[in-house]
Amino acid sequence: IAAVLHNTPEIRAQLLKYIASAFGGDRLVAEFVLLQLLSRIHTRKGSLTLGNLTLNITHFPTPPAASATNPAIRPFASLLASLMPKYHDLSLTLAALNRAWFFPRSVDEVLKAGVLQLPEGTTIVVDETVLEEGVLGDQGFIFASGRGGRGFCNGPRSM
User: Fold this and answer.
1) Mean pLDDT (the chain, rounded)
2) Report for 8-12, 37-41, 137-141: range of highest mean pLDDT
């Protein structure tokens, strides 16, 4: 442990360089990504959550028309998958919003997991660059409006 503590500045510099490589060498973005990856919730009281840092990274190149994924996100996604033990990415296309179940539900007495029902500590990257104009169906509206809940045998319940 003493050797690791002694080399902490060098390890941090190498890690920042590695993260920056996914953003064209942008060290500021790398600093924010590192802070986000290290942040943890330390206090929960009602709806107040302290300690977790949510990070929005903007100015990614626009994806090709009608694309389900943005190729510009791949280097960042690969980087996170290599660094984090639990990682999940989610492309928010209109089709995905209308088709996917984001919260748990019961189908014929069998409990089905939702897309966002992930283990604690999972790092999630949500790609909003692929979201296009269109009509949200009932499924997409429930998620986008924040009225997601759980769909059990007595019907959907807000959470």
Assistant:
1) 85
2) 8-12
User: Domain residues of the chain, as ranges?
Assistant: 88-159
Q: Give the global pTM.
A: 0.76
Q: Contact, 76 vs 22, CB < 8 A? A: yes
Tokens of residue 81, six digits: 């998958």
* Confidence at residue 149, expressed as pLDDT on a 0 to 100 scale: 55
End-to-end CA distance of the chain: 44
Nearest to 99 by CA among 131, 133, 143: 143
Q: How many Cβ atoms are within 10 Å of 4's Cβ, its own excluded?
A: 8
For residue 83, what are its two tokens? 């660094």
Contacts of 60-68 spanning 24+ positions with Cβ under 8 A:
60/129, 62/129, 63/129, 63/130, 66/132, 67/130, 68/93, 68/95, 68/96, 68/130
What is the structure's pLDDT at 153?
Answer: 45
